[in-house]
Amino acid sequence: MTHTYNISGMTCGGCQAKVQGLLSKVAGVKKVSIDLAKGEATIDMEKHIATDDLKAALKDYPKYQLSEGQHQQHAVAPVPDEEETKSWVATYKPILLIFAYITGITLLVEYMHGEYIWMRWMNHFMAGFFLVFSFFKLLNLKGFAESYSMYDVVAKKWSGWGYVYAFTELALGIAFLTGFNPIITNAVTFVVMVVSIVGVLQSVLNKRKIKCACLGDVFNLPMSTITIIEDALMMGMSGVMLLKML
To answer: pTM of this prediction?
Structure first.
């Protein structure tokens, strides 16, 4: 059975992720879909759940107020959201452009050196990756942390990890750029990315339709295999560089 409720107080993707996470924890809830623009929550439930029980899930966040929608239906067919109707390229255009920019600039740096040294290229690529991605996360640090806690294995248990993670990426970007202790830098990168990819794999394999927090709260990118590739690429590069230095 599916019911639609009005939710007031949501102003950003972070709010959307927070409300979705809180309502998803209510016993009997199978799936929660949030329409931020309309201020609505569509809840697929195993059996009827009292509205008061749903309100109770939001009690620690009084700015979010839930009320019954005008139209509640049973067995409502899911309506494709905007992301589902867009092509793959259109959906992931922001992240594809970022990868293209970083790849192009770092290859240009190698060209200017007169020779291609792949270890140096990977170092520059990872510096650009972490600096750019941390920038988007820091634009709305709270929104990123709340979105990240939806799927990351560490952030689920400690919400503060989302805040720490954004600055960890920034620190790694600076470390790769300045050449700070390559062994420590690559070792930390490898461990961080291994931990990060676990939550991503769980979400993708379980086919959970949640927002990817890789670009913070700026772009609404769905979690998918491209997120796995992103984390695996950083993990692989750091692993290769670490093996070359040991």
So the answer is: 0.69
Convert the pLDDT of each residue in 47-58 to its tens digit: 888 888 899 999
Please give the Cα distance from 139 to 179 (Å, whole number).
26
Determine contact, residues 238/169, Cβ cutoff 8 Å: no
d(CA 154, CA 237): 23
CA-wise closest residue to 142 among 23, 16, 39, 34 = 16
Question: What is the distance between the alpha carbons of residues 174 and 156, in angstroms, rounded to a whole number?
Answer: 27
Four-way CATH pick for 2-79: 3.60.130.10, 3.30.360.10, 3.30.70.100, 3.40.190.10? 3.30.70.100
If we measure between CA atoms, which residue out of 202, 199, 85 comes closest to residue 214?
199
Give the model confidence (pLDDT) of 22-53 as tens digits. 898 898 898 898 888 888 898 988 888 888 88
Classify residue 76 by its DSSP letter: P
